[in-house]
Amino acid sequence: MDRGLVIDTPYIDRILSGIKTWEMRSTATKIRGRIALIRKGSGTVIGTAELVDCLGPFTDAQMMANQEKHRIELERIRSGQVAKWRYAWVVRDAHLLPAPVLYVHRPGAVIWVTLDDKVQQTLGER
Question: Which of 6, 17, 41, 111 is the most buried (most CB within 10 A)?
Fold first, then answer.
């Protein structure tokens, strides 16, 4: 696991609790496999998950029909607040780490963070 996905609160908590399986993004991704989950602004990896697919782009109707997967409030979809988030990054098997793991957040890393060897080794031991 060499990369981490930066996710804001409360969305990361919903993924880790298992109630959210789609992380909605404005672009597609070809990345697949086990990834670290980073709480935005924390400087820590707090969990891991398997990124298994990327679906979309979705219409408003499709977004509303799949609300139980992405957990975005219907009013936010109707109002256009989330109009740019049309791709579902499908995650499964999310796990909260026993303790957060500090990492170095390099300038410019907004979506993905490349994890250094020490962090990769620490995550591999958990």
Answer: 6
Q: Which residue has the tokens 């979809």?
A: 77
Looking from the CA of 10 toward its CB, the CA atoms found within 13 Å total 9
Beta strand 3-7 with 87-102 is unpaired
| Domains in the chain: ranges and CATH | 3-104 (2.30.130.30)
In angstroms, the CA 26 to CA 83 distance is: 9
Going by C-alpha positions, the residue among 86, 84, 20, 72 that lies closest to residue 49 is 20
> What are φ and ψ of residue 105, in 5° steps?
-95, 105
Indicate the pTM of the whole model: 0.94
Instruction: Report whether pLDDT(98) > 90.
Output: yes
Pick from 94, 4, 15: nearest CA to 44: 4
